[in-house]
Structure formats: structure tokens, C-alpha cells
Amino acid sequence: xxxxxxxxxxxxxxxxxxxxxxxxxxxxxxxxxxxxxxxxxxxxxxxxxxxxxxxxxxxxxxxxxxxxxxxxxxxxxxxxxxxxxxxxxxxxxxxxxxxxxxxxxxxxxxxxxxxxxxxxxxxxxxxxxxx
Length: 131
Description:
- The structure is a single chain.
- By secondary structure, the protein is of the alpha+beta class.
- It has a single domain, classed as Nuclear Transport Factor 2, Chain: A.
- The protein contains three helices and six strands; from the N terminus they run H-H-E-E-H-E-E-E-E.
- The protein has helices at 6-25, 29-33, 55-68; strands at residues 35-43, 50-53, 72-82, 86-97, 100-113, 116-124.
- The chain has a six-stranded mixed β-sheet.
- Strand 4 and strand 5 (100-113) form a beta hairpin.
- The longest helix has 20 residues, at 6-25.
- The protein is globular, with a radius of gyration of 14 Å.
- The protein starts with 5 loop residues before the first helix and ends in a 7-residue tail after the last strand.
């Protein structure tokens, strides 16, 4: 059984706090500051579907989500799973997406290197109306 890496968890929890601030307010600055220059982002749908590389591409993605989708979501954390370098946050989010009521279950995975996030993967799959 793998040992819990408390430093990895601490960095990931800090980043997740900045991430949830971003989805609630559209202000991604603190989250973006925690990303490595070679950051990779994987997203399942839309114009950013698949693998995206670089901090600039990530910044464009998160700002696109907030601005284009008119996203303002509150997250409720359900579960955290981790190993030495990766932390997965499972949460429910609810709010407004495209100016319509929205609910979903989401899992985001953060890969941690030092005190930065070097990778992000997002998974979701409910109907957008239930959680």
C-alpha cells in the first residue's frame, strides 16, 4: 500500500481551493499561479477537448469556461483520493451554466510536482440536472 504524501495533499488542497474560487467567481489568477509552465490539461468536450499543453493554454481554457459559459458554480466536496503525486477530488457543483440552472457530479485530478500543479484531468457525466 502506498504511503500518503502529506505535502502532495497540502499543495493539491490549496489548488482545489483556488479552483473552486475560480468556478464560483471567474477569477482564476491564484489557480493559474499554481500551475507549472509545462502544465497539461485534459478535458472531455468542446473546443478544448483532449490534451492541452502549457500554462497559457490552461489560462485561456479556464477564462473561456467562465466567460463563454457564464459559469458561476458552488462546489461541495464529496471525496478525496490520492497517491504520491496525484490527488483526485470528487465533488458536486451547482449554479449557472450558459445562464441556465446547472447541477453535476465532477471528478478532477491534479498531478503535483513540488509546490505546483503540473497536470489536470476532468471527468463528468451526469445529465447536468441532478447530483
